[in-house]
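tokens incoming
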């Protein structure tokens, strides 16, 4: 699975976004270590606060299917800079993905920013903190 293909999957996911309120469509593509790809889009709701971001949609789809071993995540939107994930998504990514996993942020112009999960949310609150 090359990166160009994973970016294409994220764009395809974005086309499925349900965004009647913000009109801001986001797509994500999550690659598992088995080579499977889970697409995710953002899904909004008339009760605005229950919207689900594209990144979490992809992660929750994979996890709920028993796929829990991840190799890379691409996120894309029609933004001026590579789209930055929100704080809630950073927290979820940080817990469910390896710290050294690559997260590739992109936009429709083709700009890219690649960083690790640790770089996305340095010093994240983690399950270990609950046991201290
Ligand atoms: O990284 C991001 C940032 C925002 N959104 C969604 C949430 C909401 O539906 C819309 C506007 O914030 O974009 C995502 O899906 N991912």
């Amino acid at each position: 699975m090359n990166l160009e293909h994973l970016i294409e999957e994220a764009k395809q996911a974005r086309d499925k976004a349900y965004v009647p309120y913000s009109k801001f469509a986001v797509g994500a593509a999550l690659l598992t270590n088995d080579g499977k790809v889970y697409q995710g889009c953002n899904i909004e709701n008339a009760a605005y606060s229950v919207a689900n971001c594209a990144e979490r949609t992809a992660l929750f789809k994979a996890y709920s299917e028993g796929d829990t071993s991840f190799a890379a995540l691409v996120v894309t939107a029609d933004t001026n800079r590579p789209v930055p994930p929100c704080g809630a998504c950073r927290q979820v990514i940080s817990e469910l993905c390896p710290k050294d996993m690559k997260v590739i942020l992109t936009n429709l112009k083709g700009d890219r920013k690649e960083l690790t999960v640790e770089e996305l949310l340095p010093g994240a609150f983690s399950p270990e903190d609950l046991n201290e």
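note: The pocket of 2'-deoxyuridine is lined by residues 19, 22, 24, 26, 42, 44, 51, 53-55, 75, 83, 85-86, 89 (CB under 6 Å).
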